[in-house]
Predict the 3D structure of the following.
Amino acid sequence: MQRKQFLKILAGTTGMITLGSFSKITGMMDEEDEKLPVLFVGHGSPMNGIEDNDFSRRWAQLGKTITKPKAVLCISAHWLTRGTHITAMQSPRTIHDFGGFPKELFAVQYPAPGNPALAAETAKMIKKTSVGLDHEWGLDHGTWSIVKNMYPDADIPVLQLSIDYGQPMQYHYELAKELANLRKKGVLIIGSGNMVHNLGMVAWDKMNEPGYGFDWAIEMNASFKKHITDRNHQALIDYTKMGQAALLAIPTPDHYIPLLYTLALQEDKDHVSFFNDTAMAGSLTMTSVLIGDALPLVPVETKPAQADSTSRDTA
C-alpha cells in the first residue's frame, strides 16, 4: 500500500476505528512509517497561541518540517491529577484555563478530533500504572496553543496524558519510556511546559523584552541544556540536587515534568537540538528540545538570552 493511499484511508476512519482495527493499522505503520521525533516545547504565555511572534512562527515551521503525524499525544503542565489519565473522547473541548487575558484568547476554539481507540491502546501500553480513560478534560492551553500553530487545520487527532502530580521525578521518567512504541506508529509526542518557570519572580515590566533573563535563570537554562546534550538524564531527574539556582528555576515541578517525558523517549541514535532558546521576563525560558530527525529549521529572528546579574536580590 502506498503512503498517500494509507493516509487517505486513515483520514477517513479517524475516530471510527475499533481497537482491533487500530492495532492492524498501527502494525502497518511499523512497516511503512519512519520513527517520529519527540518534542519538549516551552509554551510560555497563552497569548503565544494567537500572536504572530518568534515562538509561534517556529511552531508553525515545525509542523511543516516534521513528518505529518497520525495523532499527537501531549503531556501538558496544566493537567495535574491523582493517578494517570488519558483523554478518550471523540471530540475534546478547547479549555481556556487562564484569566485576565483579552477576549480574543477566550474565543479560540481548536476543534481537533480525539481518538478513543488510540487512547485505549495507549492506556493498555502503560504497565507501570492503571491509566484512566477520561471523558471530561479536553485540550488545555499547554496543548492547543502549540498544536494550533503546528497544525492549523485541526485535522489530526490530539490526545492528552495527565501528570500524576503526587509521584516523584523518577516515576514520570520510567512511565514515559513505556510510550516509546508510539513514535513508530505515527504518533507525535510533545511535552509542554517550561524548563525555567518561576511566576513568583516574573519581571512584568520586561515582558516585551525577549532575551531578558535573571542570572540564575540563564545559569540553570545552560546547565539543563548541557545535561540534555550530554544525555545525563539522571542529573535532570535529580534537579533538586543542583543547588539554589535550580530551586529558583523550578519552585514547583509542574512545568518541568513534561521535559522528563520527552527525555525518556530519547534513543541511542537520536539527534538533539534546541529551538526558541530565549529567556522571558527574567524568570522564564522558552527553551525547547527536538529529539530525533526532522528537516533543518530555517533560522527565525530570536533575541538571545541575556543575564541580569542583579536579579538574585529580587524576590
Observations:
- The chain has one domain: 3-313.
- The radius of gyration is 19 Å.
- The first strand starts at residue 38 and ends at 42.
- Confidence is low (pLDDT under 50) at residues 1-32, 302-315.
